[in-house]
Design brief:
Layout: H1 2-19, H2 21-24, E1 28-50, E2 58-75, E3 88-93, E4 102-106, E5 115-119
Antiparallel strand pairs: 1-2, 1-4, 2-3, 4-5
């Protein structure tokens, strides 16, 4: 009986590893922001800005923002660097974070193509 259980576990492990690798990895991890690099600017045009103090007053405007590139170090749930993950370079985001900040990072479908969700506090 134990032999059958072991075989079934081996088949399940192989199936998960081959067909569902994203099940083995967490969908969201914590990461520490390492290197920070400001990239090119992007603009949001055709904005209408309202003045809350002077009702009905508004004016047209635009915003210039930047893309940022980060190197991330994946952390375990306690905030320690996780040796199972290499540093992840060239993670781009329009969100600005300081070096050393802790962020939540989504790993869609178990791939190392992270998207920064936002800053968190452990």
């Amino acid at each position: 009986m134990q032999e059958l259980q072991r075989m079934m576990k081996d088949v399940a492990r192989k199936t998960i590893a081959g067909d569902y690798p994203h099940v083995k990895l967490p969908a969201v991890v914590y990461a520490s922001v390492g290197k920070v690099k400001r990239l090119d600017a992007c603009e949001v045009k055709e904005l209408v800005i309202y003045n809350d103090e002077n009702r009905g007053s508004h004016y047209r405007g635009h915003i210039t923002a930047y893309w940022y590139e980060y190197e991330l170090t994946v952390l375990d749930r306690f905030g320690n660097p996780d040796a199972d993950y290499p540093p992840i370079p060239q993670v781009r985001s329009k969100k600005q974070f300081q070096q050393g900040a802790v962020v939540a990072v989504a790993l869609p479908y178990g791939e190392l193509a992270p998207s920064i969700i936002g800053e968190v506090r452990l």
